[in-house]
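Structure tokens please, single chain.
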Amino acid sequence: MFRALVSPVLITAMLVLSGLVADRVYSGMLLAQLLAGAAAGSVLISVACTRLRAWAVAPLSVLALAAYLAFALNLSAQRADVPGDLLTVAAEALRDGIPRLLAALVPVEPQPDTVALPIVVTWLAGLTAMELTTRTRRTLVGLTPPVALFAGALWLVGPSAPRTPWYALAFAGLAIAALAFTGRVRTPDSGIDPVTRRALRIRAAIAGGTGFALILVLVAVAAPPVAQQVGTVPLDPRSLIDPPDLDALDENPLIRLSGWALQPQEKLLDAELAADSRIRLAVLSDYDGVTWKVGATYRPAGRSLPRPPGELATETVQQRFVVAGLTGKLLPAVATPSRVDGVRVAYDQATGTVIRPDGLTEGMTYTVTSQHAEADVNLLPGADVPTGSAMSRYLALGPNVPENISRLAQQLGADNGAPYQRALAIEQFLAEHYRLDPQAPSGHAYPNLNFFLFGPAHGGGRKGTSEQFSASFAVLARLLNLPSRVVVGFRARAGSHPVTAGDALAWPEVYFTDLGWVPFHPLPQPNQEAKPLEDEYKPEPEKSEPPESEAPVPTLPPTDESAGPGAGDTGATGGGVNVALVAGAGGGGLAVLLLAAFIVFVLLGRAALRRRRLEEGSPEQRIEGAWLEVGDALRLAGRPAPEHLSAAEVAVHAADAAAPVRGKHEVRLSAPALDELADSVNATVFGAGTARDADAEAARSRAVAYIGELKARRSWWRRLIWTLHPGPLRWRRRD
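Here you go.
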């Protein structure tokens, strides 16, 4: 009896353990409970049908699977509030179960399309394992399906749950126990009395149990240190599924504001709110100098949504929406949504933006529960902003920032040291000096923002919609090292009211340490007169150098042959030598000598500077010297790198500066890339003492090769100026 029961019990336990592993990426315990039922059901069917023919067991087990699957799908649909009859729900779950399971946002909500596949696989694994173990008495082969199921559960979890060796240890222990307790001790059929036979079996059992215990102890002791040596991040299966495609209006809803402003009475939503709030449509985090984008990776989600990183919560608010004229896929909600009822959504956890993959339809109704946050205004003046790679997305700007905008940012931040004071200075400057105009055209690329900030007021400049105000604020904030983003949404009043196109607006947000994202309001007050732009903020007039005039050619005074000797001479000697001509020749010779001395000084100084940078000092100093040589070369080529760019961005800028030249008779190859040099520079900055002589030599070679190619692309007279330019000897560089 013991031998007959040990295999079903251990196999069931192994299947249940696989379900517990998979449940780590699910919310709640419903999946683990359903998989435990599938494991027990498949094993019990096989045990009950042991005396039947092998060909009859599989059909009976599949019929039982169909009944249990119907029960599980109906239960999960009720728990997840999924509409539709059981037949429709089951058809969708079986048809789309694999892609929806792999694309679902973690934690995955147990609903029909995310539980169907695990239940079917668990049941079939239990059926196969029991048939192989009980009918063929091959326990080792019979354990293959549970092992494959356990490996599949680990693959499904991927990097989405913390690493722990205890599930694997427990699974290995169950497998060892199954092999140990189902093994047979063969003894001769005759010649051994019952007492001896019993003693041999007891000794074999003790030996097997001791070996089992020793293996478990060895694995328990060795597993943690071995697991710590594994540095490879597991594959995330969710990366194999492409996110939903979005059109331009969903990827950048900022461009919709000007169109909504022209039809302010258009009804977009019916909203029922408990208090005056701002409804968020999308969070735009990425800017490339041309357009702001959401830059989201949407994952199918259940009703419960995880909180985005950095988002804080102070109170829970609920809203109810009915879609009217709003189109697209973006789903409006008060920040930050934690639960959505009534529609199936996809969610980007990084930005907190929600979409409905099937698109919005008129009359669609849904309810949102949000975790709303209000920053403590008393803590803002002393708040700091975080740094590091986590905030790099919210500090990045596209290349070639206009000089006027960079200079304006530095002026606004010059007298404001604290981050919050810098943000307030930008907000106040925009609100006081610019006008809100619903008729202003759309656009937030660098040229549009430059015209908005500095264009003539009589020519359409210095006025715009909330699109230009929020985009300008975010760009200026990033130039002052303030993590910022742009949010598009609507104003909404408490109670049940329609939301019209005139309620649409955009606003910027800045992230402060321990306070989260704080909104700012750079729009002017209604009927407020805009102040004239002070001279200190106006762009500097373009400098136009006058054309070089040729030096006057010295001439001799006219002579009159009829005059007496010495007539027409001023200070001439009796030999008729002109004193002015002699003086001019002497002065010209002195100028030539001074010019030659200057050229020699520049050449020797430049050579000494390059030698000191590239050949002297520690490896870190030589790598830094190579980077400085590249920076000087870009300035000499007329393409200086803006100061706010990182080393990697400077490498991209350098590649653009050395774009291939395609002349009439030649096509020059691209200049050597500087990506590896930029990596070396970052390594010396953030890992002092790690550079070697080989790294410094490689940095020198890359810099020299790039500078040589960049210089060769200039005309002969520009190369001559490049060689004789004294700038590198006097230019000041930031640390």
